[in-house]
Design a protein that fits this description.
The protein has helices at residues 14-24, 39-49, 65-75, 88-99, 117-136, 196-202, 216-219, 257-265, 286-297, 351-358, 379-387, 406-412, 422-433; strands at 5-10, 30-36, 53-57, 80-84, 104-107, 166-167, 247-253, 276-280, 301-304, 315-318, 324-330, 333-339, 365-370, 392-396, 418-420. The protein is an alpha/beta fold and 435 residues long. The strands form three sheets. The chain has a seven-stranded parallel sheet, sandwiched between helices. Strands 5-4-3-1-2-6 form a six-stranded mixed sheet, sandwiched between helices. Helix 4 crosses helix 9 (286-297) and helix 8 (257-265) crosses helix 13. The longest helix has 20 residues, at 117-136. It is elongated.
Length: 435
């Protein structure tokens, strides 16, 4: 007998709530237990009804989706699918949400008769299924560091004591939510001492100091949290970059990737002597906001890749959504190639495509990483890299993945040479390129 998953739909538009409810109702696995008009009502509903999964609009009156997300992740962690517009503000807010605990996102449908409504509906149902499965298997997202409240805690009861969300009573409501067994707190490397395994890893290379940031202020626990505006973040000076390098790092990720990339990229040292190529499964426009936000928190320069640009050490290149990214070489310089060739395994950009292009350059000491994500993209490419003599092949360990799909595929295929927890991946990469 299949378990019915209880869904809370949050949107300030009654029209959009109706569309979302109709789409979700197409799958009998889901039971819509309530809808809410804003973030404050959503929090009340979570406390009262304990849903299994939530769809959450970003822009709402009284309390927006970002603030509601942060509070819900503190009081009752549950997978939340954000609904995003494709405006510049919408993409930036979506990236913030993903880094602060949202499970995934979809682009908001424009209406019931829009040509993309069926695609949006299929994507929504797929992400909901993955989210509830992940929740039940205890891989639920846990923030890499606590998200501090912007307000002082108060013992006073909230002024609004009336829950105005629309309930949908059902006998299915009596199903009990499976207890969540939270993962170990994924405290960032800047805020905790290295574990024994990490110290052992760093021994051969005493110059690796991933705990050390360029300024004292950045080391302090009071450094700006990820949910604050970008302009308040502390950004270290970038070093002069070089087109001469011996190492290359390639990273592939999908669901849960923005949070994982933040953990890894923001921890790489300012003098990192290699370029980093990244494929994150994400639609167009969102990858630009991802690159901009990562650049704000990283010692390295992070940019959305441009076709034909020269590749330099100390730069992180994010593949643009909708384009495959490959490494090419002209004369003595390496450069970026972008193409709109057919998707591979449903993905464009594809991790396999990027990894396989790197396999063509055995003169470079190459290091591949597969992190959290659904499916098996990257396995064929990692094998090609290994066969061509790549030195490092890392799969993120199960206990730190939001979704243990892509890393699991790499491990089961025997192409991952090492399995590393998220908080130690930057250490492992830094050690590898400094050998």
């Amino acid at each position: 007998m299949n378990t019915i998953s209880r869904v809370l739909v949050v949107d300030d538009s009654a029209f959009m709530r109706k569309i979302l409810c109709d789409l979700i109702a197409l799958d009998p696995q889901f039971d819509i237990i309530a809808t809410a008009n804003n973030g404050r009502e959503a929090i009340d509903a979570v406390r009262t009804l304990k849903p299994d999964v939530i769809t959450m609009d970003l822009e709402m009156p009284e309390m927006n989706g970002l603030e509601a997300l942060e509070r819900i992740m503190r009081i009752h962690p549950v997978p939340i699918i954000m609904l995003s517009s494709i405006s510049d503000d919408g993409t930036r807010e979506t990236i913030k949400a993903l880094q602060n605990g949202a499970f995934d996102f979809i682009r908001k449908p424009s209406g019931p008769m829009s040509p993309d409504i069926h695609t949006v509906g299929e994507q929504l149902l797929e992400k909901l299924r993955i989210a509830v499965l992940t929740n039940r298997q205890s891989y639920l997202f846990q923030p890499s560091k606590p998200v501090p409240s912007t307000k002082k805690p108060s013992m006073a009861k909230a002024k609004s004591t009336t829950i105005s969300f629309e309930t949908a009573p059902s006998v299915k409501d009596e199903l009990q939510l499976k207890p969540i067994q939270p993962l170990e707190e994924l405290t960032s490397l800047r805020e905790r001492k290295p574990a024994a395994a990490q110290e052992k890893l760093e021994k051969p290379a005493p110059t690796i100091e991933v705990n050390k940031r360029p300024t004292k202020k950045e080391l302090e626990p009071t450094s700006p949290p990820m949910d604050q505006e970008l302009e308040t973040a502390i950004k270290p000076n970038k070093l002069v970059r070089s087109k001469s390098f011996k190492h290359l790092v390639a990273i592939g990720t999908s669901t849960g990737g923005p949070r994982a990339l933040h953990e890894v990229i923001s921890t790489l040292p300012i003098d990192f002597p290699a370029p980093v190529l990244v494929v994150q499964h994400m639609p167009p426009k969102f990858t630009r906001s991802l690159a901009q936000r990562l650049d704000t928190f990283s010692s390295l320069h992070v940019t959305e890749a441009i076709h034909g640009e020269r590749v330099e050490a100390g730069v992180v290149y994010i593949a643009p959504g909708g384009y495959h990214m490959e490494l090419t070489k002209e004369g003595g310089s390496y450069s970026i190639k972008l193409s709109e060739e057919a998707p591979r395994g449903g993905h464009r950009p594809s991790v396999d495509t990027m990894f396989e292009s790197c396999a063509a350059f055995p003169e470079l000491r190459r290091h591949s990483v597969i992190m959290t994500g659904m499916g098996s993209d990257g396995v064929k490419g990692m094998k090609a890299l290994n066969d061509s003599g790549a030195e490092t092949a890392i799969a993120e360990s199960e206990e730190t993945c939001v979704v243990y799909g892509m890393p699991r595929s790499a491990v089961e295929a025997g192409v991952a040479k090492s399995i590393v927890p998220l908080r130690q991946i930057a250490t492992a990469i830094t050690h590898a390129v400094r050998k």
